[in-house]
Amino acid sequence: MKEGISENEGETEGNFGNNEEDTEATALRDLRQERYGQESMRWTDEMNRAMQRARSGFGGDGGGATNWGEMGPGFEEEGQFVAPPLALRRSAFCTSWLGRGENSGSSSAVAEAAGSCNEGCDRDAHNKRARVNSCSNDCHYAAVMASGAGNSTPSADRHLGLRDDGDDSITSKSEDLEVRMDLTDDLLHMVFSFLDHVNLCQAAKVCRQWRAASSHEDFWRCLNFENRNISVEQCEFDLVPSAKSFTQSSSCIWVEYRISVKRCGFEKLKELVTILSSLSIPLNRITRRL
Amino acid sequence: MSSSTDSPTLTTETTQLSPQPDTETAKPTKKITLKSSDNQIFEVEESVAMEFATVKSFFEDSPSTDTVPLPNVTAKPLSQVIEFCKEQIKFKANPDEAQKKKYNAEFVTEKSDKDLVDMIPVANYLEIKDLLDVLNQAVADRIENKSVEYVRSFFGIDNDFTAEEEAALRREHAWAYEGVDED
């Protein structure tokens, strides 16, 4: 199993050696290091960053993942990264994941993989922004006076006339006997933050709003398959041919991250599971924290 | 359950809630009037009102006001929120974590599903973080490991997925199906 992962690292590296991206991805770890200080988790940070950019390559049809050869220039453009010591990272990779010392391919593979998805990343970045905006629109109580505050002072209006007419989800007179209880996206987000992944997946099936809310990236930075019995049969293999081609190398870690890291989390879980299953990584031992 | 707006019964709640300087601070405190979107008047101790960050900042900005309109808060959840905050003030004055936990747990368990969910936007709007956490946890607990149908009925949500989308979700989440109660 583990050997299988590492054996082809050399190839991967050869194919994708690209120091710039490598260092960029590397740099990402440091930013969050304080927060996730455990040695064994270090690599996850890097992965996370790489994933953040790369993830959308898997989006929808998974087509973005096929462009391994076309490393985009996007990473250079974002030149906000610095280069921390690679050796340290790599050793963290080795010990926590593969248990071997020669993992030199892993980090670069990760970075490269990330790099190959630059295009997708840009898109992702846009989506993200749009998402934030729409969220604040939904949840923000614009200064529209509701009917009940008629006798308030002007300043009262200013401060507390917060109901946005476009937002039908807060307590309102439209509430009828049918017990309709809607929460805005940010409120749902708060409730969901108390749910585990299984329940988030359940929640995703409730309705579109919930699907969107439950797939928020915040909830999918950590994957825990502990005590889950995941089989290949539960996955579909038609998704990510390119990802499969990656699975023979240590970059599987990357693939995993690419999948798990972002808000598309649950939609991509099956890809993740597929990949990991084909790698025979014991799924019940996978716990992620980014 | 049909809590809503304009229900005359709420007036009685108002009167229950407002006049009771008994249990709290000894000194007579200033009263603050809160007005819900359905025009219910709530007179609360200033200390209680100051638990509402939104109201507090309102007063900081315009100290001369005596009535605070809360145009997106209806009377019922507001009365419950006030009830909660009164208790929290007691715990503040007299810290007892165990008691507080117990109270918080009881506070949510005795509420209906709808009451809980209705209070969330109110707590959020009034910026009562403790209550918001308690409520969110409680709602999450109530829908945890429940079937999708149950959750939909809990929230009164209509299924707006197409059959295709549902099937896709079902496939994607196959791994998560184990151990889910069917209600």
Mind explaining what this structure looks like?
The complex is a heterodimer of chains A (290) and B (183). By secondary structure, chain A is mainly alpha-helical. Chain A has helices at residues 2-7, 9-16, 19-33, 42-54, 74-77, 86-98, 104-116, 118-139, 154-160, 185-192, 197-204, 208-214, 241-246, 252-260, 265-279. Chain B has 183 residues and is mainly alpha-helical. Chain B has one domain (12-143): Potassium Channel Kv1.1, Chain A (2-Layer Sandwich). Chain B has nine helices and three strands. In chain B, a hairpin with a 4-residue loop joins β1 and β2 (41-45). The radius of gyration of chain B is 20 Å and the shape is elongated. The model of chain B is unreliable at 1-26 and 179-183 (pLDDT under 50). Chains A and B meet through α9, α10, α11, α12 and α15 of A and α3, β3, α6, α7 and α8 of B. Chain B: Keywords: Ligase, Nucleus, Ubl conjugation pathway. Chain B: GO terms for molecular function: ligase activity. Chain B: Its main location: nucleus.
What descriptive keywords fit this protein?
heterodimer, A: 290 residues, mainly alpha, 2 domains, 15 helices, elongated, B: 183 residues, Potassium Channel Kv1.1, Chain A, three-stranded mixed β-sheet, 9 helices, 3 strands
In short:
By secondary structure, chain A is mainly alpha-helical. Chain A is 53% helix and 0% strand.
Question: What secondary-structure arrangement, pairings included, does this model have?
Answer:
The complex is a heterodimer of chains A (290) and B (183).
Chain A: H1 2-7, H2 9-16, H3 19-33, H4 42-54, H5 74-77, H6 86-98, H7 104-116, H8 118-139, H9 154-160, H10 185-192, H11 197-204, H12 208-214, H13 241-246, H14 252-260, H15 265-279
Helix pairs in contact in A: 2-7, 3-4, 3-7, 4-7, 4-14, 7-14, 10-12, 11-12, 14-15
Chain B: H1 10-17, E1 31-36, E2 41-45, H2 46-49, H3 53-61, E3 67-70, H4 75-93, H5 97-109, H6 113-126, H7 129-143, H8 148-155, H9 163-172
Parallel strand pairs in B: 1-3
Antiparallel strand pairs in B: 1-2
Helix pairs in contact in B: 1-4, 4-5, 4-6, 5-7, 6-7
